[in-house]
Amino acid sequence: MAFSGKWETETQQGYDEFCKLIGIPDDVIERGRDYKLVTEVVENGDEYSWTQHYPANHSVTNKFVIDKECDMETIGGKKFKATVTRENGKLTVRFPNYHHTSEISGGKLIETSTATSAKGTVVLIRTSKKI
Fold first, then answer.
1. Which of 95, 98, 92 is nearest to 81 (CA)?
2. Which residue, 25, 53, 98, 101, has most beta carbons within 10 Å?
3. Whole-model pTM above 0.85?
4. Candidate from 59-68, 72-81, 108-117 with smallest mean pLDDT
5. How far is residue 76's CA from residue 79's CA, in Å, rounded to a whole number?
6. Per-residue pLDDT tens digits for 17-45
7. Residue 48 near residue 41, CB atoms below 8 Å
């Protein structure tokens, strides 16, 4: 139940570079740069509901069960199938353009997204505090 609760972004490292690499438009990057993203997680054993609240009242909710393929959605609305795994307390999933890991460390939600292209690898690290 470590992930359960509401989390608000404190810091983001690599935000601009990551967003550009995965194809997010510049105006969206600009609006989101200083936005305090709120992530709401409901955890019930291996079942999760993971909602992220973005600017302009846009939210994305992904519901999943550990180690079972499920339907998921990106911030841009792209639907895809993925399997979330859990190892050593970390949740891991492969999105269409990047690999995402979430963990609780020091009472904070740490989300690490890694994207690779011909230009190289870019990492976004988002740290959120419980609210």
1. 95
2. 98
3. yes
4. 72-81
5. 9
6. 988 888 888 888 887 788 888 999 999 99
7. yes
